[in-house]
Amino acid sequence: MRKFTYPSDLLPAVSGLATLFQQSFAAEDDYIAGLWRQDFPQGLLWLVDDSSATSKAMLGYWAPSWSWASIAGTVLWPTRTIARHQRDDFTVELLENRLRNAHDNPMGTVLGGYIRLCGRLRLLSCVTKPVEWGAFSRFRYDLWREDKLVGNGQFDADQDDTAEEVWLLQMKAQQSGDCFFPYHPTALMLERISGSWLKFVRLGCAVLDDEQLDFFDVCEPQDFEYY
């Protein structure tokens, strides 16, 4: 596997392959910071191999927080095992791409910007660190709403100073039972950008407990900006 001196080299390094793939198989598709529009909800549901990740805060900006390219380490896609008939269960819609790319090349370096999504968001009360739990324990936390345990979340980087607010974004309407991974995310953990209302960055991914699958039923879908 090739290693990069700078994480900012990730997207430019795969731009040639992305261009070739688009020309051969995805002429009608759009490439957005390492993800494809037609596969976008599933593409957002990556998780960090916590044995290899480096804190994003230490290294600066080179990709939006929701892109796998924002991680200086290995990422996994447990949802790639989802059967095709279950892929319609995704509950998030991509409305608009407002990213800025160097030289106006969508395959290359991302300079900034955001995407606009529509989905169900709900604020958690707190997150707490549980006892160690298997291979995916380093960044794993219990998620609470008032006095109820909602599920558990895996952060993309070590949370020595836990975010003041943690929101959940529903990604799938139900659990998928055909996955070989011990951690199969159905929601994303987000943090609201300070001083804004509906502007968020990614913190990690989450799994809801079986008895909390109606957690988002009280929420209406709303548009928001995702950086």
Structural class designation: mainly beta
- The radius of gyration over CA amounts to 17 Å
Name the poorly predicted regions. none
Q: Please give the largest β-sheet.
A: 10 strands, mixed
Give average pLDDT, whole number: 81
How much β-strand is present in the residues? 25-35%
Note the run of SSEs as H and E: HEEHEEEEEEEEEEEE
Helix content: under 10%
How far apart the termini lie comes to 29 Å
Backbone shape? globular
Q: Tally the helices: what do you get?
A: 2
Report on this model:
By secondary structure, the protein is mainly beta. Helix content is 9%, strand content 32%. It has helices at residues 10-25, 40-44; strands at 31-32, 35-36, 47-48, 75-76, 93-101, 110-119, 121-123, 126-128, 140-145, 148-155, 167-170, 187-192, 199-208, 222-226. Strands 5, 6, 7, 8, 9, 10, 11, 12, 13 and 14 form a ten-stranded mixed β-sheet that branches. The chain has a two-stranded antiparallel sheet with strand order 1-2. It is globular and about 50 Å long. The two termini are 29 Å apart. The model has no long low-confidence stretch (mean pLDDT 81).
Present the secondary structure layout:
Blueprint lengths: L9 H16 L5 E2 L2 E2 L3 H5 L2 E2 L26 E2 L16 E9 L8 E10 L1 E3 L2 E3 L11 E6 L2 E8 L11 E4 L16 E6 L6 E10 L13 E5 L1
Parallel strand pairs: 13-14
Antiparallel strand pairs: 1-2, 3-4, 5-6, 6-14, 7-11, 8-9, 9-10, 10-13, 11-12, 12-13
